[in-house]
Specification:
Layout (H helix, E strand, L loop, with lengths): L3 E4 L7 E4 L3 E6 L4 E7 L3 E6 L2 E5 L3 H16 L4 E6 L4 H6 L6 E6 L2 H10 L1 H4 L8 E5 L2 H7 L4 E7 L13 H9 L1 E10 L7 H12 L4 E7 L9 E7 L9 H11 L8 H6 L5 H8 L3
Parallel strand pairs: 7-8, 7-10, 8-9, 10-11
Antiparallel strand pairs: 1-2, 3-4, 4-5, 5-6, 11-13, 12-13
This protein binds S-adenosylmethionine.
S-adenosylmethionine binds next to strand 6, strand 7, strand 8 and helix 5.
Length: about 280
């Protein structure tokens, strides 16, 4: 009988993945980490029982996480990634020439094992001299740093365990202090259909700090429960409403190859279904 990896992230829902070879299964200093093979997803990484990234569908998540804010910004030179220890977001950001990346993750073991067992995700990003890796709690980091960044990507686990602090009002406020004028913050904000509270909390908290807060969506097959929401926060209200031809020009100038992202998908991803809009506007 094949062993099943059962992701019980959402109560009452299980995602059963047939486990092939197991490459790592142990506690790190901060989290339970497992890396195993799956026939359809390729190599899968889970943290504290939740699927984080898989070799075969990570491109969707990381392309949307990196290229939407960078192409919307138009002149980003410095990008901060909080979390993102698998290196997927860093890999996509580094496709843009002239960008320096700082990646702050709490767990060095996630990075080391991602490089060892899932090298296609980071695809050499950790050897790139334009990537500076800092191992510390992202919440502490943004509180203490005097640096500023044009785009901040909060590629965190869900709001449990070490990731919980990365969804707080305090953390968002400190991120705002690290953002240059016209900068953009994007967040991993869960699956609205099963994590409505997480979405609404981030919306309300970011809404006290920024004049343009919304979400954009993409469906990542290994994330159970439907389309995933990326949080969007900036004080430059024009950035979310750029014409497709502007995005196309920037995309072509960047000369990056993508398998999911396109300027048309970029624009369309901000169109929120009514059920998501209702989560954001419901009386509390
Ligand atoms: N794509 C995944 C998702 O949607 O949940 C996120 C992937 S990435 C592996 C999540 C990273 O967040 C991990 O490397 C973890 O170590 C990091 N992390 C969790 N809490 C953190 C904190 N407080 N500060 C910095 N990094 C943190």
């Amino acid at each position: 009988m094949t062993e099943l990896f059962d992701e019980g992230l959402h109560s009452g829902i299980s995602l059963g993945l047939e486990v092939g070879d197991i490459h790592y299964q142990d506690k790190t200093e901060h989290q339970d980490l497992m890396i195993f093979d799956h026939a359809r997803f390729g190599r899968v990484m889970s943290l504290d029982g939740a699927v984080q990234t898989t070799e075969n569908d990570e491109f969707i998540y990381h392309e949307m996480f990196a290229h939407v804010p960078i192409l919307a910004h138009g002149s980003a030179k410095k990008v901060l990634i909080i979390g993102g220890g698998d290196g997927g977001a860093a890999c996509q950001v580094l496709k843009h020439s002239g960008i320096e990346v700082t990646l702050v993750d709490i767990d060095r073991t996630v990075i080391d094992l991602s490089i060892e067992y899932m090298p296609t995700v980071s695809d050499g990003a950790f050897e790139n001299p334009k990537l500076n890796v800092i191992i510390t709690d992202g919440c502490q980091f943004v509180k203490e740093t005097a640096e500023k960044w044009d785009v901040i990507i909060i590629d965190s686990t869900d709001p449990h365990g070490p990731g919980e602090v990365l969804y707080t009002q305090e953390f968002y406020g400190d991120c705002k202090s690290c953002l240059t004028d016209g900068g953009i913050i994007v967040t991993q904000n869960g699956i609205p259909f099963v994590q409505a509270d997480e979405l609404r909390n981030s919306y309300d908290r970011l809404g006290t700090l920024f004049s343009d807060v919304s979400f954009y969506m993409a469906t990542v097959p290994s994330y159970v429960g439907g389309a995933l929401a990326f949080g969007w926060a900036t004080n430059d209200t024009s950035l979310r409403k750029l014409d497709t031809h502007v995005l196309l020009e920037r995309y072509l100038d960047a000369a990056i190859e993508t398998d999911y992202y396109s300027p048309e998908i970029h624009q369309a991803s901000f169109v929120l279904p009514f059920y998501v809009q209702k989560i954001l506007t419901a009386d509390k």
